[in-house]
DNA sequence: GGTCCACCGGAAACCGCGGAGG
DNA sequence: CCTCCGCGGTTTCCGGTGGACC
């Protein structure tokens, strides 16, 4: 449905704000209930606000939420920690490559570990930083480098400004009579001033990299210098790293992985996160070996593990006793069928809760979960159909027209005839039957239609095609396409053909 | 058993397009 | 700037096929 529900792993850093916001909403809910009993007047929203609230904090169920505990991932987390602890000793940690399908907790675990790492580094005052980049959003070498460069330039600026204010304090102290030599390495105020000038000069040089326009090697140089500006260990987290390689090759990774040999002050370590287990096949062997020094695999969750995860989050997300007992096992079972995707399971649970809320029932029960499953499935289909290429839409529409006229298990020939006529109607070029059979097979792969080859003996051999999605909704989506919306007159034609 | 329908699906050629490279 | 190459989508060509019917 909306963009919010799309399964993107965007790392929006405003969870805390969202949570506090969610709490405010709950407060409003309470107030609303009181007001209603007082005044007795029924406004538009009063109905919706009345009744028991089901959610206590819905944000916990959203994909962007980073949990503080990740059940069944302690092995992976510990392994990451044992590798990254080198950073806290000032050594370079090995590069890490993390594999796992969507919704197996890769990003969440990695973010959790990096938060811990940064906190610990502050505690012991070891300079160590983690930079997160989502390569699906930042998908070219230039953008990756520019983003990193700007992050570090910004930090360096802050660092220099801090030093400047320290020096200003010091200058004051010296003027008040403390001998400079006692407190500082500077001999007198003149020494401090010249150091201030020096730093201000450096500050001048730190300009951010523009989002476009520079040659890539200049951006690289800029990034390199920003990182090497002072002593530290930097962990670069590249999420969806397979997307980056797919779209812009392995140059970026090559450059990043050989940086260490040229850096004087700092150390860089790369942490790649990939959905695709085989993506290293496309890499330069040198990059492959340096990047995959350590590999961590995140296997899909099974139904029991999913149940733990859901239980864990549901405790926070829902009001006490808002869920009936079978809700969580059912969500877990559904999601386990879908390759153990935890995000999917959480989505299901949240949608079930929303449906319950909307229908104003006091509990979330099994029926809501089933409805939620249907709704998510429908949303998926709508999305797939909506983004289909025009030719495929025409083919699908032909099948729908036939189906609507009571022809089930249509064969390729019939579909092709209708399709041809449709093409004339909307002024699209007509593809060959050969090609149309391929399109039908694609629709089959997407689960929109079901096509099996059957032999009708004497009367040939063909695909029997039947629709496997709800007719009305799908048709509505197709008609929403500007090119297909003009079709209306085709109905009599199908009828005529059918009469033959 | 042979025929033959009506399409399947592999192979290869073709065609426009965009991007790398001269 | 032009040229060439690779690529995805498409067309052309064609051999293949399971089983109802003769």
UniProtKB/TrEMBL annotation:
Residues 1-23 are annotated as: Disordered. Residues 1-11 have a biased composition (Polar residues). Gene3D superfamilies: 1.10.8.60, P-loop containing nucleotide triphosphate hydrolases, Winged helix-like DNA-binding domain superfamily/Winged helix DNA-binding domain. Signal peptide: none annotated. Residues 92-302 form the AAA+ ATPase domain. One of its GO terms (biological process) is DNA replication. SMART domains: AAA, Cdc6_C. It comes from the Archaea. Belongs to the CDC6/cdc18 family. This is ORC1-type DNA replication protein. The lineage of its organism: Archaea, Methanobacteriati, Methanobacteriota, Stenosarchaea group, Halobacteria. The gene is cdc6_1.
């Amino acid at each position: 449905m909306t963009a919010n529900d799309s399964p993107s792993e965007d790392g929006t850093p405003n969870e805390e704000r969202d949570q506090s916001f969610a709490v405010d909403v709950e407060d409003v809910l309470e107030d609303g209930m009181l007001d209603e009993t007082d005044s007795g007047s029924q406004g538009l929203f009063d109905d919706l606000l009345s009744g028991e609230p089901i959610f206590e904090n819905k944000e916990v169920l959203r994909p962007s939420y980073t949990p503080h505990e990740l059940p069944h991932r302690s092995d992976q987390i510990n392994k990451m920690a044992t590798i990254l602890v080198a950073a806290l000793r000032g050594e370079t940690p090995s590069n890490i490559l993390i594999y796992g399908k969507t919704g197996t907790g890769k990003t969440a675990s990695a973010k959790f570990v990096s938060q811990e790492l940064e906190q610990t580094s502050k505690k012991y005052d070891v300079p160590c930083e983690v930079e997160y980049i989502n390569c699906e959003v930042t998908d070219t070498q230039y953008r990756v480098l520019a983003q990193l460069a700007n992050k570090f330039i910004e930090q360096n600026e802050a660092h220099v400004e801090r030093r400047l204010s320290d020096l200003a304090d010091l200058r004051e102290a010296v003027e008040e009579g403390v001998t400079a030599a006692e407190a500082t390495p500077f001999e007198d105020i003149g020494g401090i001033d010249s150091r201030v000038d020096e730093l201000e000069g450096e500050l001048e040089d730190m300009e951010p990299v523009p989002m476009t326009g520079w040659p890539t090697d200049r951006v690289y140089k800029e990034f390199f210098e920003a990182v090497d500006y002072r002593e530290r260990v930097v962990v670069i987290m590249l999420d969806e790293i397979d997307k980056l390689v797919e779209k812009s090759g392995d140059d970026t990774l090559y450059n990043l992985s050989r940086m260490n040999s040229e850096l004087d002050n700092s150390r860089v370590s790369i942490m790649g996160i990939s959905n695709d287990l085989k993506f290293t096949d496309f890499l330069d062997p040198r990059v492959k070996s340096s990047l995959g020094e350590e590999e961590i695999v995140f296997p899909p969750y099974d139904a029991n593990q999913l149940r733990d995860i859901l239980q864990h989050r549901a405790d926070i997300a829902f009001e006490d006793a808002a869920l009936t007992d079978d809700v969580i096992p059912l969500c877990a079972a559904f999601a386990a069928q879908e390759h153990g995707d935890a995000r999917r399971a959480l989505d299901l649970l949240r949608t079930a809760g929303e449906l319950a809320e909307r229908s104003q029932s006091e509990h979330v029960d099994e029926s809501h979960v089933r409805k939620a499953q249907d709704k998510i499935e429908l949303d998926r289909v709508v999305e797939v159909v909506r983004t289909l290429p025009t030719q495929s839409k025409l083919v699908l529409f032909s099948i729908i027209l036939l189906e609507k006229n009571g022809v089930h298990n249509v064969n390729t020939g019939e579909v092709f005839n209708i399709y041809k006529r449709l093409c004339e109607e909307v002024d699209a070029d007509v593809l060959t039957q050969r090609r149309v059979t391929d399109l039908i097979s694609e629709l089959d792969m997407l689960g929109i239609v079901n096509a099996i080859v059957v032999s009708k003996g004497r009367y040939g051999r063909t695909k029997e095609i039947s629709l496997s999605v709800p007719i009305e909704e799908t048709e509505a989506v197709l008609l929403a396409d500007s090119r297909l919306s003009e079709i209306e007159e085709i109905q009599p034609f199908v009828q005529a053909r059918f009469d033959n």
